[in-house]
Amino acid sequence: DVKVTQSSRYLVKRTGEKVFLECVQDMDHENMFWYRQDPGLGLRLIYFSYDVKMKEKGDIPEGYSVSREKKERFSLILESASTNQTSMYLCASSNGNGQPQHFGDGTRLSIL
Amino acid sequence: QKEVEQNSGPLSVPEGAIASLNCTYSDRGSQSFFWYRQYSGKSPELIMFIYSNGDKEDGRFTAQLNKASQYVSLLIRDSQPSDSATYLCAVKISRIQGAQKLVFGQGTRLTINP
């Protein structure tokens, strides 16, 4: 079974802090994704990566950056956290083109 | 027009009945279609995928794809209270650059009444 592990289940940070969310997958998948999910807005893609050191912007990249130094690990960085970034963050991975994405358990992030 | 559309519900179905969830998509060239189940406060879980026209069955679940009409459905037979969740439809949209991306619908909230 695919295992996608997110480093924290719940996280509380303060406005202006730099926040790191980590995601690791154990299936040698090429593609990794970061989404946020908010009530009424559904899943929104922030960034994705199709190879080591490669990244592409999703639909809502503003205020975020990502890093993929190793194939199994994909990090989401909130450069200067703001209250409107309070959300559920979901990491996913997939292999190849048009293959299903497998999600981690999510990180519920609160910015105070 | 949204690229992937679902009725947000809530859809209420009595226990033991068939629940029918529908999803339409705008890109006629789309190739891959997925259904995810998401319990409240949890992450989405893949339950079905379908690539070819017709029906695909897995236990109590059947995915139906009609590319000519641009819709994909999920049928849940013998519905159980544990099936109560939000169901997300996801589509690999062919015209979007970045071939790995899926587009998700907003989800349909399903409630199975005992």
**DSSP helix count of chain A?**
0
Shape of chain B: globular
Question: What integer value in Å does the Rg of chain B equal?
Answer: 14 Å
Average residue-wise pLDDT of chain A? 94
* Low-confidence runs of at least 5 consecutive residues of chain B: none
- The string of secondary-structure elements of chain B, in order, is EEEEEEEEEEE
Strands of chain A, count: 11
Can you describe what's shown?
- The complex is a heterodimer of chains A (112) and B (114).
- Chain A is mainly β and 112 residues long.
- Helix content of chain A is 0%, strand content 57%.
- Chain A is built from no helices and eleven strands.
- Chain A is globular.
- With 114 residues, chain B is mainly β.
- Chain B contains no helices and eleven strands.
- In chain B, a hairpin with a 4-residue loop joins strand 7 (61-66) and strand 8 (71-76).
- Chain B is globular and about 40 Å long.
- The chains are: A mainly beta (112), B mainly beta (114).
- The interface between A and B is medium-sized, with 22 and 23 residues.
What's this, in brief?
The complex is a heterodimer of chains A (112) and B (114). Helix content of chain A is 0%, strand content 57%.
Relevant terms:
heterodimer; A: 112 residues; mainly beta; seven-stranded mixed sheet; four-stranded antiparallel sheet; 0% helix; B: mainly beta; globular
Q: How are the secondary structure elements laid out?
A:
The complex is a heterodimer of chains A (112) and B (114).
Chain A: E1 4-6, E2 10-13, E3 19-25, E4 31-38, E5 42-51, E6 54-57, E7 64-70, E8 73-78, E9 87-94, E10 102-103, E11 107-111
Parallel strand pairs in A: 2-11
Antiparallel strand pairs in A: 1-3, 3-8, 4-5, 4-9, 5-6, 7-8, 9-10, 9-11
Chain B: E1 4-6, E2 11-14, E3 19-25, E4 32-38, E5 45-50, E6 54-58, E7 61-66, E8 71-76, E9 85-92, E10 103-104, E11 108-113
Parallel strand pairs in B: 2-11
Antiparallel strand pairs in B: 1-3, 3-8, 4-5, 4-9, 6-7, 7-8, 9-10, 9-11
